[in-house]
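Hi R.,

As promised on Friday, here is the backbone we talked about, encoded as structure tokens. Could you run it through your design pipeline when you get a chance and send me back a sequence?
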């Protein structure tokens, strides 16, 4: 879920920096993703409870649904920003540039998240397993 809280920042960055939409604020981005979180957070709780029970197929399905929901929100933010941009570039190339920035940002956040989880899991292991 750490990645889901980084997506409003990314959509704000894309709209303000890449697409040069000066009317878009972080508050507006946060508001859009707060509306999506109404659906994503209960699904995260259900997937967590299902994961505790050990039904990993349904757990993976719920995580996939959360990812799709947040991806649709980010894509909507970028797509709507194409109509408000001050660039005179073709909208297709702006969409490609926004998608590349989004992919790099998501990859960077996933790398940070995996590193945090790796460090966290090492500290929880019993000391006799680390020898």
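Update: got your reply. Pasting your designed sequence below so it's all in one thread:
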């Amino acid at each position: 879920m750490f990645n889901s809280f980084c997506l409003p920042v990314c959509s704000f960055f894309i709209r303000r920096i890449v697409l040069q939409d000066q009317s878009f604020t972080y508050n507006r981005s946060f508001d859009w993703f707060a509306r999506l979180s109404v659906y994503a957070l209960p699904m995260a709780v259900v997937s967590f409870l299902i994961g505790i029970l050990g039904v990993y197929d349904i757990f993976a399905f719920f995580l996939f649904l959360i990812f799709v929901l947040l991806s649709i929100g980010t894509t909507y933010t970028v797509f709507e920003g194409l109509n408000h941009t001050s660039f005179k570039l073709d909208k297709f190339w702006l969409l490609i540039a926004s998608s590349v920035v989004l992919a790099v940002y998501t990859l960077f956040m996933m790398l940070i998240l995996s590193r945090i989880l790796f460090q966290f899991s090492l500290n929880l292991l019993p000391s006799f397993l680390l020898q």
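One thing I noticed while checking it: Helices lie at 2-18, 26-53, 56-81, 91-124.

Thanks again,
M.
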